[in-house]
Amino acid sequence: MNKVDPQFAGEIAEIRNAIGRNGRTDYVTTYTEREFFDGKTTVERVLILRTRGCSWSYHSGCSMCGYWDDTNPEIGKEEIENQVNTFLGEFPKGEVLKIFTSGSFFDPIEIDAGVQFIIIERVLQGYAHLIVESRPEYIGKVVEKLRKYSGKLQVAIGLESTDPSILKNSVNKNYDFEDFKEAAKLLKENGISVRTYLLLKPPFLTENEALRDSIKSARDLAPYSDFISINPMNIQRGTLVERMYKEGSYRPPWLWTVVTVLQSLRDIDVPVVSLVTASGKKRGAHNGHSCDRKFSEGIRSFSETLDYRYLDELKCECQEKWKNFSEVEEKTGVPISEMILND
To answer: pLDDT-derived band of residue 207, with 50, 70 and 90 as boundaries?
Structure first.
């Protein structure tokens, strides 16, 4: 298990604790998105449950995670069951359902262990596939019970990077690549598909460092994954990353960087997609140019089809600005903001 820096962890917790939480007990939201899944373009429904929140966030949390304000510390198993019942009453059937919480689906403190399997059973009565997310440490306790859902269940793990220094000093993740590999091995041995999330451009990295890290990390974890999702940083409220962004010491990744990472991974044997949150906006991956919409649509179309033509056809004069930005950072070794570059 990765050991975190107490001072860094304390700073993240201080920022997070300044965010108030409400007493709501309904589910947070639901929406649909399109993605390449199970060999085809698929419409997936997403359900975000309101829970007590990630157990790690009660100790510190990750530098970029702003889901704290969607949680309620008083929510128990009855409220979660009610949320699922309400949702299934509205959307009883579909091809794929992704259930996200603010932490881990298999954390028994966040979702009662019995309720976890009630939800799985109920969902798979109406949906062909279910995707849930979990930290690695909870997998060993449930994996044998998951075997019966082989072919129907996919477990996503937010690894973010395979680099231990980045996990410790940029993300404040208190687990590492070895923990991930152990959990992924258990899942695959029991016939459960593994999805892995990587974070593109954690704080304190230059653009090129972030680009290289995502490419290397994807290649490192490909043997243990059935699906990889590159998640470019988006600025969430009440996070260390938001503070850095407001201070002018952090810029989300360029869409050029997203495209380059995806193009560089075309030879690996598992699907790699990127569903970019806040794409083209200042708080999300952007080029800061009139091409933002075109790039956002190209990345989305690629992630729905795995057709690299959508990426290869992307061109814009701002490519030179992206290269200059990256070169300045490379020479100084220090991340810079757009404000500095434009001065």
So the answer is: very high
pLDDT in tens, 270-295: 999 999 999 999 999 999 999 999 99
140 in a structural domain: yes
Report phi then psi at 99, rounded to 5: -110, 120
- Owning domain of residue 215: 6-342
């970029």: which residue's tokens? 64
As to burial, measured by CB atoms within 10 angstroms (0-12 exposed, 13-18 middle, 19+ buried), residue 73 is exposed
- Is 280 part of a structural domain of the chain? yes
CATH number at 309 reads 3.20.20.70
Residues 206, 343: Cα–Cα separation, whole Å: 19
Tally of structural domains, the chain: 1
**Average confidence (pLDDT) over 113-120:** 97
> In the β-sheet with 94-100, what is the strand arrangement from edge to edge?
29-37, 40-48, 94-100, 127-133, 153-160, 193-200, 227-232, 272-273
Q: In what helix (H) or strand (E) does residue 95 lie, and over which residues does it extend?
A: strand 94-100
String of DSSP letters for 221-254: HGGG-SEEEEEE----TTSHHHHHHHHT---PPP
- Whether residue 1 is contained in a domain is answered as no
